[in-house]
Each structure stands twice: as C-alpha cells, then as structure tokens.
M1 family metallopeptidase
Amino acid sequence: MRKQFIFYWLMLTAGGLLAQPPAGNYNANSRFEQLGASLPTPNTTRTASGAPGKDFWQQRADYDIKAELDDEKRKITGTETITYFNNSPDELKYVWLQLDQNLFEKNSINATSQNNSIQNQMSSNAVTGLNAPSSVRGSVAGDFSFKITSVKDPKTGQPLKHTINGTMMRIELPVGIKTGQSYAFSVDWNYFINEYYGRAGYEFFPKDGNTNYFIAHWFPRMCVYDDVNGWQHKQFLGQGEFTLTFGNYKVALTVPNDHIVGATGELQNANQVLSSEQLKRMEKAKTATRPVLIVSQEEAEKAEKGKPTGKKTWIYKAENVRDFAFATSRKFIWDAMQIDQAGKKVMCMSLYSKEGNPLWGQYSTMVVAHTIRSYSKYSVDYPYPVAYSCHASGGGMEYPMISFNGGRPEPDGTYSEGTKYGMIGVIIHEVGHNFFPMIINSDERQWGWMDEGLNTFVQYLAEKEWDKDFPTRRGEPQFIVDYMKQDAKNLVPIMTSSDNIMLYGPNAYAKPATALNILRETVMGRELFDYAFKEYARRWAFKNPTPADFFRTMEDASGVDLDWFWKGWFYGTEAVDQDLVEVEWFALDTQNPEINKAEAKKQAEAKRNTVARQRDKDYIKESVVDKNPDMKDFYNTYDPYKVTEADKKKYETYLASLTPDERKLVESGVNFYTLKVKNKGGLPMPVIVKMQFEDGTDSVARFPAEIWRLNDQNVSKVITSKKKVVQWTLDPYREIADIDEESNSFPRQPAQPTKFQLFKSQGFQRGPNPMREAQQSQPPKTGQQGGAKN
Ligand SMILES: [Zn+2]
C-alpha cells in the first residue's frame, strides 16, 4: 500500500536524495577492497598493468624427433635431440623433462593416492582395479610407462647422468647452461601404447581388426623454467594438464605404408607419402568452400581390408608450438578445406574412420573452419598453417594444430540431437584450445581455469555464432546455479591448483566461463569487455600468463575496477542469492484537504465495517435513536472529514510558500518505491529489477554491484515512477546466477506445485533418438551412402 510522506524541501534543494549511512553489520569493506597482497608484486618481468614487462623472458626448446610406430605390438620407439635455449637470467646446472607416460606406473602418485573402499558387491574388474590408475579408464592392464634407453650428449656421445622421479626426469649437464646459451642433448625411449583414456591412446576395432592411434605426450618433453615457478615439475597426476615451452619441431614419423597420418605442423614430404590423386585433391581443397575428400570412405574401407607392404615416413615441421601430437590409422577418411584467416592460409582438416559418418563428413571440417574464424575475432589471428580434428572414441583432447574428438553416430548412421551438438561443441572446444592454452600459453598444471574456463567462454560465443539456438551447455548464468547451490564441502574456489579441484567440470570450465559471460553482458558491457579480453590475448600470445596478468589486464584495458568480482567469483565459493524482501510505496503528501480528508474518510469507513456492524444491519431492526429522533444532536450528523474554510486557507498558504518547481513536484502524483534487497548468498552482484506497470508495459532498472560497498547484507534503493508498479522482479533475464528465484519477486508469486511422476521402471535407456524413429517410418532410400559428399 502507498504511504504518504511530507515534502521536506531542504533535502531536495540539496540535490536530491542523499546517500544513507550504512545500517546493520558493516562487512563490505573486505569485498570491495583491492586484491592487493593476494596478487604477486609487479616487477619488470610482469608489470602492474598485467602486461609482459621490459625484462620478460622465456625459455625455448627445439625438438628433432624420429619415431616409429609398431602396429603389431602397439609400441612407439623414438629418438630425439632437444636443443634447449636458456634465456633466463640464471645459469642452469641441470634440466627437467616430463615423462607423462609414467602416469601409468603401478607405483605412481596417481595410482597410489586414489581413495577407494570395499563395497558389499564388487565386480572382478572393480576388485582388480583397486590399485590401478583411475585415469586409465577401461584400458588393458599393463606397463605403458616410458623406457628410457639412452640420455647422451650427441656431440661427444657421452651418456648424461639422469634421475627419474615419477613423471619427471632430471638430467645433469656436463657444464651449466649460462644465460643466452643453448645446449643440445638426446634421449632414446620406447613405450607400449595404452588404450585411449581421454588424452591419448589407441582404439581397436574388433570387426575389421584395425587400430586408430591418437598419440600424445609420447616423447620426453621439457619442463617449463620460468620467472613464476623456477622449474615447473609438479608431478602429472592425470587431472592437472600440461605446462610447456615453445619451440620449433622437426618430426619424422614412420608408420605402416597404408596409414594416413595427421599431426601438429605442416607435412614436408607430401610428394613421397601421398598418391598423385591425393595431391590433386589437396590442390582442390585450397579453393573449396566445402571439405574435399582426400581419402574417401570407400578408399578407407578398402584399406581396412588390406595389409601394409612396407613403411612410410611422414615428415612434419612446426614452428613456435608448445607440443606435438599425431593420429594415424589405415581406417582414416581424410577431408580438407583451406580458409583465409586475415591473409594467412589455414588448411582445415579432419581424420575419421567410417564409424564417425555421416556426422563427421558433414560437420567436422566446417566446424574447424568456423572455430578458427570465430576465436580469431575474440583473441588473436590463428597463426598456424593447419588445423586437424580427429575422431576418437569419446571425450575431446587438444594439442597444437590437432585435436582428438568424440561424437559417434549409432552403427545404423542415426544419432541423437545430443550426439550431434555434443560433437560440434567438442570440436569447437578442442580446436578452440589452439588459442587457450596452445598460443596464450598458461600453466595448465597449476591453473585449469586459465585454459578451460577462458576456452569454454569463447566456445559459448562460437557456438551461438554457429547457430543462434545452439544448445550450449556451459556459460549461461542459470546453468551454474546447481553447482553454486552445492554443499560448501564440495566447493573450492576457481583459484585452486588443478589437481586439488573437486567437481572439475563445473569448477574449471563452467564457473569461469559463466563469470566471464556475466562480466561481458552485465558488469562491463560487450564493448569494454571484448577490448580488454582481446588485449589480454594479444599481450600474452606466445607467452605464459598467470592469473594476475589476466585480472590486471582486464582492469587495465577497460578502466573497470573488478577486484570485487575476482574476489567473489575466482577466490571465493559463495553463491549469488538476492532476496527482494519488500517494496514500500510512497507518495508525496500534497496537503490538499479535498484529497486527504476524502482518503481519511474512506479508510475510517473501511475500519468501521466490522462483522458485528454487518450483522447488526438486519439484526437491530430499529435503534433507539432511529425510533426517537429527539435523541439526536449535532454529533449525529457531524462529518469530521468535511473540508472546512480553515482547511482551505491553510492549504492556500502552503501552496503560496512553494516555488513553481516545488509546486510541480508536489502535484505530479509521482510514486516513490523503496526496494529492500538482501544479499543472502554473499556474492555481491549488480541489482537488476524489472517493474511491471499497471498499464501492461514494463521497464528495467540496473544498479551496479558497488551498491553493496557500504553494506554487503542489506541495501535500500528508491525508484520513482509516474506509473504505478504492480509487480517487481529481480534478475528478470537470469543474468547473475541467482540460486533462489522464488525470493526474487514482490509481491511474491503464488507458488507452483512441484510435480512428481508415477514411475514405471523400464530399466536403463539411452537418450531419445527421434532420427531413427523418423527413418523407420520412411520407405528405405536407394543409391544413398552414409558417407560424406563433396
Ligand atoms: Zn578443454
């Protein structure tokens, strides 16, 4: 109900409604103070603005690798010469290398630190798996760790003393590498390839007896030595990904001569490994607007039935990359389409066995091309000459210029909507990783969110550009609500070391992606955000940023103080829960006796309308005063609400005292609403409120998060409106991830019943496949293959 208040003009002439002193517990200072000591002290390597400083340096490692795949034994044997350039200000007595395959050792930290327990009922697999590395999902038990057969100085032939510590190896150098110097050493190794576990491995197809190989972290790789950690040699436990140094690669891969290979880098000897027909098709791909088949499904199926007659060596070169991976199989279909990205030619390609069709032929390479264009717009132009998407059994995993992606149709060629969009989404995501972290080279072993979160955010933008109705899984604020509502014991801040993160998907992917989306749409606006985000990418392309470099650059380039936001979203685990406690309604008292006395009369009459009075109307047939009019006097007809001459005079005197502006305000009839909003969740966010007016129109008011800076628990805000508001709604477009919508309306909306279903158990069912149902109701088509077409 509308309350009236007396117009007090001193306040208005002082310039409107004055800021209110804080009420209740004052706690906001810590939320809106600067991050200060939480960030590392800036220096000449990393500046206070978040940019690389004048003394920025990073190491470089060039690789010359020769390796052979033994398809029978599923074994890789390799030799490499690493030339390590010491650009640090420090002399290095020893170097550290990463032996990622040692993740699979029985005594690895990964295997032995898994928590497990005995259940009442356990399968034999579960029992034997009690001490197996958890990340070797479904793999054949075995020893897939590296066998290091030689570490030596190639110039002198002298062996180098080396010590293996789990997934790391220290090599002692004959003399220290001084600043500005380089040192070359060589390592020989071999290992048996594990079954695909989400990052790398083989997939065997029992039907045709062939194997697809997706090969990564397959050679001893340099650890990063930098200004942040010194040597980053945190053990590989499976969850925390990779921290790697840029360099140039020359790689010769020897495989059975009926294999098709795709790898990081540009193929150097196409004339030797491709047929003249394949070379011709590759030429066609340079000007095509749809993918051109280099190897068709028919040709791949023919190869599946054949046997190799020898070996072939595929030679690749890659410049300024942080890693090298490859895929190889005789089962591969291969398509390609070249695009022009800001004047640079990029050959977009896909490798997939027939099991991936029809989805892969139709979408994969088109999605690769779209991803490169879309990400280049939001970050930096794609700098590499090729980009592959390869079809692995599931999941998605990224390496420079190449990624291994799931998304497989049913054997009959139909697929669910989830499979289709899952496949397109994962290709966008993994190709997108070329930018974060392959170019903007963050430390994945330490900070999962710096690549996964930023990448998932740009993935969201790219998915919408692919299809405005794309069923994006992560990035929309409302999708993070279930995670934010979790019991506190399941939550850790985004700023948590990769291997210690619980609920990795929501924590490292969805929450940071959502936070960035909120920054872009709600806190900063698209223009300020996009400029700052691109500046971050530009500053740190081919360098190794830290969280502070990101936080500082986003503020430095936009001029928006975001410390409160980083604190709340990245350093904390609180949720957003705003409660619209009440809205008080006021109007200026006009002091007009005609209006005020009429209103007072109406109210008094309403109060007199008691139940007894209603019943007495018929019950008391005739009262004493009705029967005896002489029992009435002045007060039986006196109306205290009648406007008197004295009332009128007083009102005229009041009006005469007002200036014309003041008089206009008093007579405007404007409504004043005081919103009382409570911050129940703790995480301060802008207050966004929609007003629905009596006449059916609406309007939205927005107040910045700084509204909470003097009181982080309760705020009160006055909104004036000529129109009468009938309904108030906080966060009407679901943009701040408020975990409780019910407390967002005033008056409260009538609750809807929570529906529950009568459940008939039908056992385990996969998602719906309406495509198959539709096809089953159609007569079969003739002369149509499931494969991709040019
Ligand atoms: Zn990822």
